[in-house]
Specification:
single chain; mainly alpha; 7 helices
């Protein structure tokens, strides 16, 4: 009888530890990725000047902590339209991301741990326009963008 009790206690303890470890992993909060600008990539000769400008814009924003793209390589949509990228922070709090980032997640290029690619939602054109407007007229920058974006399709 003592042996059975001991086995039950050991089994319960093992199950409890396993469940705790699983819960810690499953419920880990997603964190925004570190800022990252565009890497130097091979591009067609006619696009080299454009790509060099994108590199400058995104690298500069990344140094200021304002280019936290959620995919790797980083999107160009946000660089072109806002000179920053809030998508890493947006996806970490469960909100939608730009269309290029959504596409990156769809092909396995997401870089935010704890986020299920299937759960990532893209913003509608209206949501993107609202976010861009709030960014252009905002003194608060990226935090105002996250507040103004309701996450519509979430």
């Amino acid at each position: 009888m003592k042996m059975v009790r001991k086995t039950v206690y050991v089994s319960l303890a093992t199950a409890g530890l396993t469940l705790s470890a699983w819960a810690a992993f499953a419920w880990q909060e997603a964190k925004a990725p570190p800022p990252m600008g565009h890497p130097h990539m091979m591009v067609a000769p006619g696009a080299q000047k454009l790509h060099a400008e994108l590199e400058k814009v995104s690298q500069s924003a990344a140094k200021k902590g304002m280019y936290t793209c959620c995919i790797n390589p980083p999107c160009e949509f946000c660089a072109v339209h806002m000179a920053s990228c809030p998508c890493g922070k947006m996806v970490a709090i469960g909100k939608g991301v730009c269309r290029e980032c959504k596409g990156g997640w769809d092909v396995g290029e997401g870089r935010v741990q704890g986020v299920d690619a299937a759960a990532v939602k893209g913003m509608s054109s209206k949501e993107v326009m609202d976010m861009m407007k709030s960014h252009k007229g905002s003194k608060g920058g990226k935090m105002d963008m996250m507040k103004s974006h309701k996450g519509g399709k979430m």
